[in-house]
Write a structure and sequence with these properties.
2 copies of one chain form a homodimer. By secondary structure, chain A is an alpha/beta fold. Chain A has 10 helices and 6 strands. Chain A folds into 2 domains: 136 residues, Response regulator (Rossmann fold); 61 residues, Winged helix-like DNA-binding domain superfamily/Winged helix DNA-binding domain (Arc Repressor Mutant, subunit A, Orthogonal Bundle), CATH 1.10.10. In chain A, strands 2-1-3-4-5-6 form a 6-stranded parallel beta sheet, sandwiched between helices. In chain A, strand 4, helix 4 and strand 5 form a beta-alpha-beta unit. In chain A, helix 7 crosses helix 9 and helix 7 crosses helix 10. Chain A is globular. Chain A binds a DNA duplex (30 and 30 nucleotides) through helix 7 and helix 9.
DNA sequence: TGCAGCTCGGGCAAATTTCCCGAGCCGGAT
DNA sequence: ATCCGGCTCGGGAAATTTGCCCGAGCTGCA
């Protein structure tokens, strides 16, 4: 329970829901060795808070579709490669998990995990180890056994993100705003995704996204 | 701050994420007058826990869309009409909100609300009042400016048929051909269906059709 | 008889989609 | 060092669709 220095582990909490954040804080701080030194409620703030507090571990909830979560991971790691980032989200799609690790995350834990598993993961990544919850391990394992060139493999990160939000019901303008892009660019991606996947209709696109686990219905 | 009996308010927490649940518990219990008497992590358990503990307020996270959250609300209310249920979720679609209230919820609060707004809402519903967070009020207000009604019941035969084919991935021309209609008419139906259901996007339409069992994915 | 609602389509301005294009960036191959 | 290819980002312009209004014929119902 205390493989860590007497000073404990400092944590930066990133989540866009205030009350959720406050809940995590209480759970983590009740552990004794975990100290939440800062909170942030979006990717931009996350980077600022990281620079300001240099925490041992960043617990990052990219709950909203990947959004700029991957970007935040890259930004933080670009600044300090020793940063330990634990992604903590309700999503469990293999694409997302691989993207997160690819971006430099040290761990990936779903919210369906037991609290004890989460704090254990935090301690693990603080020690420099890689960590993931059991369900994520299963998802990755299953995924690695299927040589199925999923349709999603032909799509870039941006394209997947936009497809996810679109399939989730978001408007073109909403997506543009969320991702800070021009409406025109989102429209172009929309078209590009359709031609890449061969979908002739928005409805087909949604079904595609659903069958690929990009969105649930 | 204490319009409630000295015994305080007993709460049943329902959320499918253990750590989130534990976080809420801590936030609520730090209030003094709120006591979490039980937790559940799915709709079925929620009903059992309600029967066993008869809490003043059920705080229910129907995180998955449609899902069985509404069913849980109905079950609980069928058993005890005086039950107070506060829906607490990250979703803010008007359809969902109306469905929740229609099923018997007393309040609807999004996770982007301040923690204080959440505990305030709990106290409100405990007093028998209706409660909702500001963002939900805005969504409902905007929505109510075009009286939509429930959902599929307001659609005519033709409309349902066209929605089914559309959600199945059919092109406007294909639908027109299949039904022997002019493209223009199909377009008009498309538009009509959107305005009737309140869907702003084709993707939302597909999701709607799917949750209504009109199409499989 | 008259109202109400579904079905079917026309019209037309506004918005979006569809393609095609170039530019910057980066990583990998030569 | 250089080129190539892919991703990202947007402009432009024609084609299409949307959004919203309209009228007409049909039904069932009061």
């Amino acid at each position: 329970m205390s493989e860590v220095a007497a000073t404990g582990i400092s944590v930066l909490l990133v989540d866009d829901h205030p009350i959720v954040r406050q809940g995590y804080r209480r759970v983590l701080e009740s552990q004794g060795d975990l100290h939440v030194v800062a909170e942030a409620d979006n990717a931009a703030e996350a980077y600022g808070a990281f620079k300001a507090h240099d925490p041992d571990v960043v617990v990052l909830d990219i709950s909203m579709p990947g959004a700029s979560g991957l970007e935040a991971i890259r930004n933080i790691r670009a600044r300090s490669p020793r940063a330990r980032i634990l992604v903590f989200t309700m999503h469990n799609e293999a694409v997302l998990v691989k993207a997160a690790f690819g971006a430099g995350a040290s761990g990936f834990v779903t919210k369906s995990s037991e609290p004890s598993a989460v704090v254990h993961a935090i301690r693990s990544v603080a020690r420099g180890e890689r960590a993931m919850s059991d369900d994520i391990a299963h998802v990755l394992a299953a995924d690695s056994l299927s040589p199925t060139g999923s349709v999603l493999d032909q799509l870039g990160e941006r394209e997947i993100e936009i497809l996810r939000q679109f399939a989730g019901g978001a408007t073109t303008e909403q997506i543009a705003t969320h991702l800070n892009l021009s409406v025109k660019t989102v429209q172009n991606y929309h078209y590009l995704i359709k031609s890449k996947t061969g979908a002739r209709t928005d409805a087909q696109l949604v079904r595609l996204a659903a069958t690929c686990g990009l969105t649930r219905i």
